[in-house]
Amino acid sequence: MPVNAIKPYNFPAEDTEANFHGARLVYVGWNRHLMFATPYAWPLPPNMPFGALTQGPMAGAFAQHPDWEKIDWSVVAWTKNGEPFTPDYEASLAENGIVHKDSLRFTTPGLDGIGGLGQ
Amino acid sequence: MDLQVAKKKLGLKERYALMTRGLGWETTYQKMDDVFPMDTFEGIKIHDWEAWEDPFRLTMDSYWKYQAEKERKLYAIVDAFAQNNGHLTVSDARYINTVKLFINALAPLEYQSHRGFAHIGRQFRGVGPRVACLMQSLDELRHAQTQVHAISNYNRYYNGMAEFRHHFDYMPYLQVPRSFFEDATAAGPFEFITAIGFSFEYVLTNLVFVPFISGAAYNGDMGAMTFGFSAQSDEARHMTLGLEVIKFMLEQDPGNVPIVQKWLNKWTWRGVRVLTLVAMMQDYMLPKRVMSWAEAWEIYFEENCGALFRDLERYGITMPPCVEQVRKERDHLSHMAWSQFYQGRGTNDFHTWLPSAEEMDWLSAKYPETFDQYYRPRFEYWAKLEAEGKPFESAGMPMQCQLCQIPMFFTEPGEPLVLAQRHRHHDGEQYHFCSEYCAEIFDDEPEKYIQAKIPVHQIYQGKQFPEGTDPTAEGFDPAAAVGAFLRLDPASTGNFVGSQDEANFNMWRGLTRSND
Hints:
Helix content of chain B: 55-70%
Strand order of the largest sheet of chain A: 2-1-5-3-4
Largest interface: A-B, 49 and 54 residues
Strand content of chain A: 15-25%
Largest sheet of chain A: 5 strands, mixed
Oligomer: heterodimer
Shape of chain A: globular
Strand order of the largest sheet of chain B: 2-3
Structural class of chain B: mainly alpha
Number of helices of chain B: 22
Shape of chain B: globular
Structural class of chain A: alpha+beta
Largest sheet of chain B: 2 strands, antiparallel
Distance between the termini of chain A: 40 Å
Order of helices and strands of chain A: EEHEEE
Radius of gyration of chain A: 17 Å
């Protein structure tokens, strides 16, 4: 429904890709690792290889978890906005079809957080 | 010969009529619709403004008298508190962080409320509600002022309070209460009064004020307790006004019922989301605890508001559906919030800490279904890391809900190990939400919420650097620039243990109790 207002109500969206100086926002969360309270947000260049995301910003944020170094990336399962997603780690974010404000989640089979409790 | 005639003294009823209803008039050379352009567009139909019953027959002259009397008492106590170093009588210096939360997150809402009521006090064409809104507007201004004055005693000695106005406008976590209130003030007058006058001041007010003010009393904070009590008689009046407005709308036209119901659904949810801060304060921040969030919810919502909504059933109003989810989150809310504040402690203007073993036992007892299973393991793990000298701290910026702007730490209702997320497209852009209810509110007015200044996105857009900053300069440090923009004093952030506040409090209190 449109906003109920006394005058025509038309204002631009605050977070369009054009406002991020060439970067696009990507969110990444690690399932069953709730020690990280939320998924994280990063502004990333669209031509960044997907593998550079995992080894760069994601490692910077998630490597504090003892499970991080045990991850076997060949079995990691991904979702994008809740749908299954199979990234090509060599290809860029754009080539992987990742657009502005896509939300990624990854599951690491066999790695279930601190004490196996999803933490 | 002139006869000396005693001046006739006005009776209460007459005086009230003259000083409220008698102040309004039907305009003649301008149309009423042009003079009051905002009280029709929301779809609320009022057929008879005269049917408005004032809950309190208060006139301006007696208002001044009562408030002045309260003011004298309040400031006598606030002065005594200052002169006797009252800040050193509190239970523990950790308590002062709840005072910081109050001045940064809640006192500015009183000021926003003042502005909101001043605005709608101009916009209703019925003179009865206008006078009532005017008085509430003045009350709210007074509350903001007395809170700032009372808390200024703490600001002399402790960190994290001096920039409360700037922080309310820009600090990431404070955009939650700020955007909540701005959503209300940017709505029409009827939605505003439903949102603030009813949902916030009536349905949820006890969940806000009782924990803070009883918490103050339990923890030896005479100053904060006093402004709470001084505001209490006003709050009673505000609650009655909120309820009167709802009943007035519902009685005036059956077409108003679905509109009011929609607003109640929205604002109950938005209000409870903001109360996440209070839940966390109750369960984690008060050194001497009053009651748990779960207990407060049972008493002040389930019991009191249950009765209220049963009372409104005769108008066709039902309990907002979101309450079902709030019940499911009840035993998780404070733990999820404190986990987030603990790991994001570098960007708060108050200190956090890990609950002690004794405090965790209290949490286990209060939350037998959830604490030991889902939350104790992470706190114990973090305690181990702290003991090893490598404390865990978040190294990324959180994804936030487009609607409530809270970092997306809420788990799926009934699935405590799955972070909840909802997704929408609007006009070629995508948006993410922490819950179905936040997404529903967005669906109703997407054009409003696409403008949200989500704190993390603002930072990434480079909008939170000090003026004149050149982000392309060599050696540019974005984190330092954002800290400077936010006026975030590093001494006010981080772990309580080892903080300047802790050291000073212990030293000063030590001086009052020993001869060294």
